[in-house]
Amino acid sequence: MLRRLVQNVSLRARVLERAEEFKLNNKANNDVWIREFLLCQLTSNSSFVSAYSSLMCAWDFLLKGSYSEVAKSLKRCGYRFYNLKAKFIVNNREFLPKLKEIVKPIADADQLMARDLIANKFLGFGYKEASHFLRNVGYMDLAIVDRHVISFLRKEGTPINFKTLTRNKYLTVEAILRSISNTLNIELGILDLFIWFEETNTVLK
């Protein structure tokens, strides 16, 4: 199924264009990294569309507002988990002025190490959110194991029976995806975009 998608010239061009946008983010200033960081924070347990619209709607409060102001702003913008995400955002805010300075040198050297750093340092970030953020700022060697990926693998016959995704189980699924990406001769981050299209018929994320 994926080989058919990868060989679709029109779709492949759209996916590679999106991937190039992520790679350009790598060279962008810290403000762009903050935007992608907050987007990935809001996308967790929510839809991309809801997260992106709430990010744009509440932007000024996300950067400077108190916990109460951030929560009220997200609620007003129609975001579902406004209290929880306000807590995460306000707690992480002290690191945002030097976000790129903190993450980029480590990610340039070792993407797995950078993911561990993000998952351990930033409230509300696990492996999925950290991988998503790193992919969105141009690092393509990590898998974003979300419900769409799990659904795809199950439909393809991969026996995934667990309900919770521990670190070891995440790495197991990532190894499966890495094997698929190697077979198709594409990067993991690009494989994710093809799977996302297969599951949602969109190239966003």
As a whole number of angstroms, the C-alpha radius of gyration is: 17 Å
What's the architecture of the largest domain, going by CATH?
Orthogonal Bundle
Question: Any idea how many domains?
Answer: 2
Secondary-structure element order, N to C: HHHHHHHHHHHH
Structural class: mainly alpha
Tell me the quaternary state: single chain
Percent helix, as a range, is over 70%
What is the CATH homologous superfamily assignment of the largest domain?
Hypothetical protein, domain 2
Structure description:
It is a single chain. With 205 residues, the chain is mainly alpha-helical. It has 2 domains: 2-23 and 143-200, Endonuclease Iii, domain 2 (Orthogonal Bundle); 27-136, Orthogonal Bundle (Endonuclease III, domain 1), CATH 1.10.340. It has 12 helices and no strands. Helix 4 packs antiparallel against helix 5 (67-76).
